[in-house]
Amino acid sequence: MKKKVIKYSTLAVAAVIVLVNSIYIADLDKIKAENLSKTFDPASYAADFWNNRLPSKLPEAVDAGELVRMLEEDKESAFDNYSNALGIGNIRYFLISGEGVVENVEENFVSIRTGYEESPLEVHIATEYIFGNAVRDASGIIDINEFSNTMDFNNISAEINRIIRARVIPPFKEKVKKGDTAAFTGAMELNREILNLERLEAIPIELIIKNR
Predict the structure, then answer these.
(1) How far apart are CA 209 and CA 12, in angstroms?
(2) Residue 21 is assigned to a structural domain of this protein
(3) Is the pLDDT confidence value at 34 over 80?
(4) Does the reported pTM lie above 0.70?
(5) What share of the chain is helix, strand, coil (3-state, %, to 5)?
(6) Fewer CB within 10 Å: C terminus or N terminus of the chain?
(7) Residue 44 is inside which H or E element, if any?
């Protein structure tokens, strides 16, 4: 009888060992992140952002000439009131708008003279190299805490930039010429610590030729 008890006990212990070794313990947060990454569709998210969420923010864009004036008079106030960023740092993003005369149509930029008559300025609208997070972050709409991993978050910017390259730039670049009157809304990156207003560059969101 004792031998049978020992035998069954040994078998039970062996079964438990096999069962324990067969269990894979994984980090729950990691599993959730992987599952979310598999189901997240950055193209659909970017399309919804562009079509349904961003348009309501565009009227808040600050006039480019007015922004430069404020930056020259009170840089800190201008950054605090009109820029957005996702974290702590000197790189900040602005939604800007303006209207003026097209000065140059170059391969990579269209230059528009805007600002005040007594202090005009040129804004260089990017038409070739559309990259980075300017539009995503300048809007102040998207919260990084919504996302479980940075890959999904960065893919949103890539898709937004793809929309700009496909929808915004081609119809404008095809028709614009020097001397046209054009209006723009876009996103601009500035460094709070090392502020350079000599050459303003913006990623376009809206481009309209007014005299057509």
Answers:
(1) 81
(2) no
(3) no
(4) yes
(5) 50, 25, 25
(6) N
(7) helix 42-48
